[in-house]
Write a structure and sequence with these properties.
- Chain A: Oligomeric complex that consists of at least the alpha, beta, beta', gamma, delta, epsilon and zeta subunits.
- The structure holds two protein chains of two kinds.
- Chain A is of the alpha+beta class.
- Among the domains of chain A are: 344-348 and 375-460; 463-485 and 506-614, no CATH class; 677-788, Immunoglobulin-like, CATH 2.60.40; 793-908, 2-Layer Sandwich (TATA-Binding Protein), CATH 3.30.310.
- In chain A, the strands form three sheets. In chain A, strands 12, 13, 14, 15, 16 and 17 form a six-stranded antiparallel beta sheet that branches. A five-stranded antiparallel beta sheet of chain A has the order 2-3-4-8-6. In chain A, strands 5, 7, 9, 10 and 11 form a five-stranded antiparallel beta sheet that branches.
- In chain A, strand 15 (854-863) and strand 16 (868-877) form a beta hairpin.
- In chain A, helix 16 runs antiparallel to helix 17 (273-289), helix 20 packs parallel to helix 22 (371-388) and helix 31 runs antiparallel to helix 32 (542-564).
- By secondary structure, chain B is an alpha+beta fold.
- Chain B folds into two domains: 3-146, Beta-Lactamase, CATH 3.30.450; 295-540, Sandwich (Immunoglobulin-like).
- Chain B has helices at residues 26-39, 76-91, 97-100, 110-115, 117-127, 138-146, 150-184, 194-198, 202-212, 215-236, 242-245, 248-256, 261-272, 282-292, 360-366; strands at residues 3-10, 15-20, 48-50, 54-61, 64-71, 128-129, 132-133, 299-311, 317-330, 338-343, 351-354, 368-369, 389-397, 406-415, 418-427, 433-441, 450-454, 457-461, 466-474, 480-488, 498-504, 512-518, 528-540.
- The two termini of chain B are 62 Å apart.
- The chains are: A alpha+beta, B alpha+beta.
- At the A-B interface, strand 1, helix 4, helix 5, helix 6 and helix 9 of A face strand 2, helix 1, strand 5, helix 2 and helix 4 of B.
- Strand 1 (7-9) of chain A pairs antiparallel with strand 2 (15-20) of chain B.
Chain lengths: 912, 541
């Protein structure tokens, strides 16, 4: 078992203190110097030095000191020194400190007593504690509560030692008595804690004999009571009934911490609807009453857990949850919306949407900087609602359409996408939406929103009047373009003023196009073409159709002219040019086949896309549902039979303990034994005098090297030392130690290495030793390098498309790797990269379908240190069947970009 | 509900201070803390991060983070409260620091934290105990860290006054010694010579340390003294409960070295330090040991008389009662067939009673104690109570003052703010009394009474507030003795009842065993005889 570490202090290596300097200062009479020296000694010890010669100096010169700080530091020193020898026996000299501790326990200064008692809590050596027990017990009766509360803790720690029951067999009884007379809330808490962990029956007895007063107890004590209740009920489910009342009583406690704890206790004890309801409403109250964002977020987490376990009850609470939207914090609002959206049902949908609408309206008035982002969130939420329950769409869509002209592009984009989907799925709403869209079209400011809106106009203006007003609206917005060529040129001559000054007054579309957005121009051309084609179907008067056709042609031609004029800094791009020319050709030469493509296939594609999206979502839900259920032929894990190293039966039953164990890192999953053998690295050659091999275990934040060293010679090797050095973000934790190795014997050496970021690290090392025949000369064997693989630190993760794009734009480090592989198939190559980098492909499989000779995909992973790794794969199949292209890696830190790049370069060939 | 660690790290990720409250390995805590700065995002409005296993709750303070590492089930409300308290502490300019090193203005940067790392750890300890939050305020933590104890100050004052007093006494005595040396020019063994010899070795050293140094280090040396003597006791009996063993050696040593009053006083002052030196167990010890000493002789006969006496404070006897027993203890079964021949003094006031199983006539006629049934042996073994089998009982009652072995005369007299108490004892010539201990109750005092004059030794038991006057032996050389002490003004009845303990090897009955007669023939077996007179309840009321 590795030693536990109780304190860490930053140690400045620049000014190392020398042991003899420290010794001198310790021996002197200057208290300040003594304190300083003692601090230095402690820091040296923490840094891995052992300085055993200081111990006697400290016993002789520091122990008798009367200064309080010296005494406290002395306790720290005693806390961290090794008190046992290599076999775990207490060192004989430790007996020397006993008297000092005993004097401290009887010191007239109550604080010295207290801190000494606290120190005893951290002491594991029963040999040292045993003679102190009477003094500890006598401190239970000390006048000062500070002493008493620490004395109780000391009693608890002593009793919890492996031999504790022999040392202090009457401890529960003593503490029980103590508890019945004690007044100090802290001492009371500690005493109850002691009974709770050492003599549960007595704790329960005490609880029930004081049941009327529980509400008046101190906050801390109430917390332990709740903990006790949880523990008792876990081991004995039948007892639940007795305790529920207590919990209900404590729900009215003045302390919010207690209330919170009550709620989580209720949840863990019972799945009865009333209990869950009580817990949920408690959480909701906390959510509203607590102003701290951390609390709100964590309470939301709890509510989220409740949601997944008891959805039907949480459904009733949805409005209460939604009240949290009043907080300005976006994270909280997002979480709240996420929870609420999963709780909507036909019954509450109206209320929820009403609330969301109100919030949307609020964002219009307030001048808060985050309003845009919040509005976007709300729009998305409403969108989700509307998809789940199409009937609500009618009530919101018009409101939302007010935001098409939102200065927040993302929000406006969301609105227009929403409108696009609703107009397709809700045919009833088509007419009103189109009318409204045509009315508000002039307000749209962003090119992307504009093009999307144009597409809607083009697709969904069906009746004669709609088509006509569609054409009119576009014409109006482009006002001026169809007049004369010179007018267009004239206005185009001063584009900057136009762009800036006319955003709101003149049609926005026009200024966008004048600023050189020819893609938008192409969209306008297509829309006009579509509208004219449709006009041909609905307009009986041929003359009207021709008129409209010529008008459209004029607009389109004007745009082409603009694109080719030299006034704009950039001429029209080829794609847009082709597209616009195609429109002209169509308008001049219409035909049924083409009309079919333009008027129907387009819409069909869109319907297909929506259906695909729907399908993906249902598939995801299905997949989720499947995960939670066990397969018929699955192995059943009996929780109680799982291997848990060194844990007692009691702890096995205790989930809370598990949580703690995980946190302190005591849990290590038993790895597959076969896997272990794969990780063995040979460090020296077979013919070297010392053979060494290492078995590397990679934990979360650390690497453990188990090095086996074998002496292959017939001589005894002295002062054999495994010296390691590291490159990258690795750090050795301990100093190497010296060993003596008998002829042909072996030794296991453990080395801990700390990892602080995801970077490929290298560990180098030497084995240094002396032989008995030649003591002065040290022999050095250089070890093989050990490479630490980045793959051990990253795990597949997923993130939203938008988030990926934002990160892609933000991250500073890019590593571009040219594709060089023998693989012939694009998808095979992508799969190979995914497999060898341990990343997740964000691009949906449907987007990767088909055979076009091109492939682009985004991969994403996260490291245990929370770093993001982004990869984009873009490949093209060459005529000769080979793949070419690039893999781009982006990350916030250089380490990931480089290491991942190396990894990909190494693996991409991929013959296997 | 457990805080795993409280730490301060710099924004660049350097761990400055961390205090762990549960067992975890160094590599674990360092790993957790190293991961933390990477997990903290920017622009968030909340201050906690959760990973798969732990939760960090933090608070940025200038270029630093103050953080708690907790498990994920931890109560966030409580943790935030803890964090708030810690940050207040940290920001409050340092608790002990300004008091200790006023020249340092405590800055909240890396350097400042490093400099005061240990003070911070002390403060962390006050706020979180074994991972649980303590119910404390900032002011309390400051108070705890400053460790200003009223009791300790008081204690030091007492100690100081004791030291001064001891020094005065020493000076006075030293000059007296000088005088007497000059006058008599001889070193009387009963005089004050032992002062020079008593402190051979360490007692001398520590004693002088104690008296020379001022309040600063004097106390520390005192505890050093305790240590050296205690190490011995540990090495001899490491399993012993040190409450008694730690105190006995210095006392015994002091007694051996010339019974000087000053040794006694010195021990008094040491004792007043705390409860290191508990009760003066000497007289009690000898008594109980005499009774409980293991029996080695095959046959032991014990004559014991217990004295119950109540004397009036104005003279006169209100109760005088002697109860005697003769008991027999036989180790081996084969020695059971015996008779015991006794001889009594000529005290007519005493009436003897034999055990019902005894042959009464045999005793009345020949003073031989034997069983009615000569074939039955006496019961054997040590398992029966230490007194063995009672053979004979006797009793004597009297109101005759001349029979009282020791009379006590106590005269409290008040003058001004003080009460002078003089006590004298007078012992009858009948007995030589050993281990005489006269316990005088005193009104509750803060300090030991000042003893002006004494024949014998005294000690003050501050716990029970009793002044104990002990005389090892009262024989013809000191049939009477006196003592005088001064206490603050007190009612005279406060000094009663005075209780007395002593023992003697003679008895009122003067009963002696002359012979043990074997009934089955053979040589008379060896036997041991013990005779003692002890006090059961001897009081002056």
């Amino acid at each position: 078992m590795e030693k536990s570490c109780t304190l860490v202090v930053h140690f400045d290596k620049g000014t190392p203190a020398l042991a003899n300097e420290i010794k001198e200062a310790l021996e002197g009479n200057d208290v300040a110097a003594k304190i300083d020296a003692l601090k230095k000694a402690i820091m040296l010890l923490l840094n891995g030095e052992t300085i055993p010669q200081l111990f006697i100096t400290i016993i002789r010169y520091v122990l008798p000191s009367e200064d309080h700080t010296v005494q406290k530091l002395l306790l720290l020193y005693l806390e961290i020194i090794d008190k046992t020898d290599s076999r775990g026996k207490v060192l004989p000299e430790m007996i020397l400190i006993c008297q000092n501790l005993r004097n401290n326990l009887q010191h007239p200064n109550e604080y010295i007593r207290g801190v000494t008692l606290r120190f005893l809590c951290r002491l594991n050596e029963s040999e040292i504690i045993e003679p102190l027990i009477p003094s500890i017990l006598s401190n239970l009766e000390h006048r000062h509560p500070f002493v008493r509360r620490n004395a109780v803790l000391a009693v608890m720690s002593v009793f919890k030692l492996p031999q504790g029951e022999q040392l202090l067999d009457s401890a529960p009884e003593i503490v029980d008595k103590f508890l019945s007379t004690e007044q100090d809330p802290s001492s009371k808490r500690n005493a109850f804690l002691m009974l709770f962990s050492c003599a549960q029956d007595r704790a329960i007895n005490y609880l029930f004999s004081n049941i009327d007063r529980i509400i008046d107890w101190g906050e801390q004590l109430q917390m332990v009571v709740l903990e006790l209740i949880r523990k008792v009920c876990r081991s004995n489910k039948g007892e639940k009934g007795k305790y529920i009342k207590i919990i209900i009583a404590l729900l009215n406690a003045p302390s919010t911490a207690v209330i919170y704890e009550c709620a989580s206790t209720l949840v863990s004890l019972s799945s009865a609807p009333t209990a869950i309801r009580a817990a949920a409403s408690t959480y909701c109250q906390l959510l509203l009453s607590q102003s701290d964002n951390n609390v709100k977020l964590i309470v939301l987490d709890r509510l989220n857990e409740l949601k997944s376990s008891n959805r039907d009850i949480m459904v009733e609470m949805v409005m209460d949850v939604l009240r949290a939207l009043s907080t300005p914090n976006l994270d909280i609002r997002r979480k709240t919306l996420d929870i609420a959206l999963e709780l909507i049902t036909p019954r509450n949908i109206d209320e929820v949407v009403m609330m969301l609408k109100k919030e949307v309206v609020k964002t219009q008035s307030g001048e808060h900087e985050k309003n845009g982002e919040y509005r976007q969130m709300l729009v998305q939420a409403i969108h989700t609602c509307a998809i789940k329950f199409p009937e609500v769409a009618s009530t919101v869509v018009h409101l939302l359409m007010d935001f098409l002209g939102d200065s927040n592009v993302a929000s406006a984009m969301d609105v227009v996408v929403f409108v696009r989907e609703i107009i397709e799925t809700n045919p009833k709403l088509r007419i009103s939406i189109i009318t409204r869209l045509l009315d508000t079209f002039y307000q749209i400011r962003a090119a992307r929103v504009c093009s999307c809106a144009l597409w809607i106009i083009g697709e969904y203006c069906l009746s004669l009047s709609e088509v006509e007003s569609g054409i009119a609206t576009i014409k109006q917005c482009l006002d001026g373009t169809y007049a004369t060529q010179s007018a267009a040129l004239e206005t185009a001559m001063s584009p900057p003023t136009l762009v800036q000054g006319s955003l709101s007054s003149i049609g926005n579309l026009r200024s966008l196009i004048l600023s050189g957005d020819f893609f938008l121009g192409a969209v306008v051309a297509c829309t006009l073409t579509k509208l004219v084609l449709r006009l041909e179907e609905v307009q009986t008067s041929k003359a009207e159709v021709n008129k409209a056709t010529t008008q459209a042609l004029l607009i389109i031609v004007s745009m082409l002219q603009l694109g080719q004029s030299s006034i704009l800094p950039h001429p029209i791009d080829n794609d847009s040019y082709d597209r616009i020319v195609l429109c002209i050709r169509l308008l001049c030469n219409t035909g049924d086949e083409i009309r079919k493509i333009w008027l129907q296939s387009c819409r069909q594609s869109f319907v297909k896309m929506l259906a695909d999206k729907q399908r993906r979502e249902t598939e995801e839900i299905k997949a989720k549902a499947q995960i939670s259920n066990a397969q018929p032929d699955d192995l059943i894990d009996f929780y109680h039979l799982k291997s848990r190293k060194g844990m007692s039966q009691l702890e096995l039953e205790d989930e809370v303990q598990d949580d703690l164990k995980r946190a302190t890192g005591e849990f290590t999953k038993d790895a597959d034994d076969a896997n272990k053998l794969n990780r063995i690295l040979q460090l020296t050659g077979f013919s070297d005098p010392v053979y060494a091999e290492a078995y590397v275990t990679v934990h979360h934040y650390d690497i453990v090297l188990d090095v086996t060293v074998i002496n292959r010679t017939k001589e005894t090797l002295q002062n054999l030392c495994l010296e390691l050095a590291t490159m990258g973000d690795l750090k050795l934790v301990e100093r190497p130690q010296n060993y003596t190795l008998a002829p042909e014997s072996s030794k296991q050496i453990k080395a801990n290495i700390k990892v602080s970021s995801t970077e490929t690290g290298v560990i180098f090392g030497n084995i240094v030793y002396e032989t008995s025949s030649n003591v002065l000369e040290r022999t050095v064997i250089v070890l093989n390098d050990i490479h630490i693989d980045i793959m051990d630190y990253i795990s597949p993760a997923s993130c939203a498309d938008v988030a990926f794009r934002t990160m892609w734009a933000e991250f500073e480090w890019e590593n571009k790797v040219a594709v060089n592989t023998v693989l012939q198939d694009e998808r095979d190559f992508l799969n190979h990269i995914i497999k060898s980098t341990n990343m997740k492909c964000l691009t949906p499989p449907s987007a990767l379908e088909g055979d076009c000779g091109f492939l682009a995909a985004n991969l994403y992973a996260k490291s245990v240190f929370g770093e993001d790794a982004l990869v984009n794969v873009s490949i093209e199949k060459q005529a000769d069947g080979k793949l070419s292209g690039y893999i781009r890696i982006r990350s916030k830190t250089q380490g990931i970009a480089l290491s991942l790049g190396d990894k990909i370069t190494l693996k991409q060939k991929g013959t296997a | 509900m457990v805080v795993l660690a409280a730490s301060i790290v710099s924004k660049s990720g350097k761990v400055l201070v961390s205090r762990q409250f549960v067992d975890m390995t160094r590599i674990r805590i360092e790993g957790l803390l190293a991961a933390f700065p990477k997990l903290v995002g920017t622009g968030k409005q909340h201050t906690y991060v959760e990973t798969e296993n732990v939760r960090y709750v933090y608070q940025p303070i200038e270029a630093l983070y103050l953080l708690l590492v907790t498990n994920k089930n931890s109560n966030i409300l409580e943790d935030l409260e803890t964090l708030r308290l810690l940050s207040k502490l940290e920001g409050s300019g340092g608790f002990k620091i300004d008091h200790m090193v006023p020249e340092y203005s405590y800055s909240l940067d890396e350097e400042g934290i490093c400099k005061h790392a240990f003070e911070l750890i002390f403060a962390f300890d006050e706020v979180i105990a074994l991972g649980h939050k303590e119910n404390v305020t900032v002011a309390q933590v400051k108070q705890y860290c400053e460790m200003e104890s009223h009791e300790e100050k008081l204690h030091k004052l007492v100690l100081q006054s004791k030291i001064n007093e001891t020094k005065d006494v020493m000076k006075r005595k030293a000059s007296e010694i000088d005088k007497s040396k000059i006058e008599k020019n001889r070193g009387d063994k009963g005089g004050f010579g032992p002062l020079q010899s008593m402190g051979s070795g360490r007692i001398e050293n520590s004693f002088s340390d104690l008296s020379i140094s001022s309040s600063g280090t004097g106390f520390g040396s005192g505890s050093g003294f305790g240590l050296t003597s205690d190490v011995d006791s540990f090495s001899t009996k490491p399993k012993g409960r040190p409450t008694s063993s730690a105190t006995a050696p210095p006392k015994g040593l002091g007694m051996k070295l010339g019974k000087s009053q000053r040794t006694n006083q010195f021990l008094e002052s040491l004792k007043a330090e705390g409860e290191v030196i508990l009760e003066d167990v000497q007289p009690k010890l000898t008594q109980s040991r005499a009774a409980a000493a293991p029996l080695t002789d095959p046959i032991t006969l014990t004559v014991e008389e217990k004295l119950n006496v109540t004397l009036k404070r104005d003279g006169g006897v209100s109760n005088f009662d002697v109860q005697g027993t003769l008991s027999l203890q036989i180790l081996n079964q084969e020695d059971g067939h015996i008779q015991v021949q006794v001889q009594t003094g000529d005290n007519q006031a005493i009436s003897f009673k034999t055990h019902p199983n005894m042959n009464k006539e045999l005793f009345a006629n020949e003073y031989i104690l034997g069983l009615k049934d000569p074939n039955r042996p006496f019961p054997t073994g040590q398992a029966s109570d230490a007194g063995g089998v009672g053979l004979l009982k006797w009793r004597m009652q009297s109101t005759d003052e001349s029979m009282v072995p020791l009379t006590i005369n106590c005269w409290p007299s008040s003058s001004g703010n003080e009460t002078y108490v003089s006590i004298e004892y007078e012992a009858s010539t009948m007995f030589d009394l050993r281990n005489v201990l006269i316990s005088v109750p005193l009104p509750a005092l803060r300090e030991a009474p000042s003893v002006r004059q004494i024949d014998g030794e005294w000690r003050y038991d501050s716990r029970n507030s009793i002044l104990e006057w002990s005389v090892l032996l009262i024989d013809n050389s000191n049939r009477s003795g006196s003592m005088e002490f001064v206490v603050p003004l007190a009612d005279s009845s406060a000094f009663f009842p005075i209780s007395v303990r002593f023992m003697a090897t003679d008895t009122f009955s003067d009963l002696k065993v002359t012979n043990v007669i074997p009934l089955k023939g053979g040589n008379p077996p060896k036997f041991a005889q013990r005779t003692q007179l002890i006090t059961d309840n001897y009081e002056v009321v």
